[in-house]
Amino acid sequence: MKTLVLLGAGGHGRVVADAAVMAGWRDVVFLDDGFGSRDTNGVWPIVGPLVKWREMAAQCDLFVSVGDNGTRLRLFKELASAGVSLPRIVHPSAVISAHSSIEAGTVIMAGAILQAFAAIGAAGIVNTGATVDHDCRLDNAVHLSPGAHLAGTVSVGERSWIGMGANVRQGINIGADVMVAAGATVVNDVADRTTVMGVPAAPSKRIGSNS
Ligand SMILES: CC(=O)SCCNC(=O)CCNC(=O)[C@H](O)C(C)(C)COP(=O)(O)OP(=O)(O)OC[C@H]1O[C@@H](n2cnc3c(N)ncnc32)[C@H](O)[C@@H]1OP(=O)(O)O
């Protein structure tokens, strides 16, 4: 297998690296703009700043491991438009229906479950133990946090973040750039750029950061 180059050397990056090793990559390195002041992320080396991807692209697999949804999607699009090889990373303990789909640049973490006809967009994160049930549609750069659960036929718009342990009722449409708070239960559709929290989830006057 080619060397895997991860763009973004934070905590999320370490979990992506670990999943990638479990999925079969042997050599994993990071690029990060903190290069110079840090030279490792966990047990993996940081070998240069982000821009170095251009000189590594021909020989390596590249993957954006930035947690912030907007930044991750912007970098993913930059790489994709340069024609770079952009894998999916699926932890071997995830349960993935043969009738589901996962676009490039997405990571599926340990213990996650994708049910039949679930469709996951590009540059997404389906985090530890999250479940996506039948016929759900996740647009690009959605982050489904650890232990979040989507019932059947839920749609989630671009760059939205579903917090830890949140639950979404079947058939719900969640817009783009939405923040669903940790532990919320969503029983009504959610408009673009809204933060919802609580059980049942209601819009919050305070806007949380979507990162
Ligand atoms: C592997 C990983 O680590 S992946 C990362 C997973 N992380 C998550 O899922 C975290 C998701 N983020 C949250 O739930 C955040 O609390 C947010 C975005 C909803 C709110 O964040 P902030 O805007 O910083 O809000 P802040 O912490 O200042 O709290 C504002 C108010 O909302 C309340 N509040 C915050 N989060 C929640 C929540 N999840 N549910 C209910 N109420 C909440 C606070 O108690 C506070 O109430 P108060 O004004 O009465 O004191």
From TrEMBL:
Gene Ontology MF term list: transferase activity
Binding site for acetyl-CoA: H143
Sites marked Increases basicity of active site His: D135
Keywords noted in UniProt: Repeat, Transferase
Natural source organism: Notoacmeibacter marinus
Active site (catalytic residues): H134
Name recorded for this polypeptide: PglD N-terminal domain-containing protein
UniProt keyword Repeat, yes or no: yes
Binding of substrate, residues: D32, D33, G67
InterPro entries to which the protein is assigned, alphabetical: AcTrfase_PglD-like, Hexapep_transf_CS, PglD_N, Trans_hexapeptide_repeat, Trimer_LpxA-like_sf
Stored Gene3D superfamilies: 3.40.50.20, Hexapeptide repeat proteins
Domain PglD N-terminal: 4-79
Similarity annotation: Belongs to the transferase hexapeptide repeat family.
Top-level taxon: Bacteria
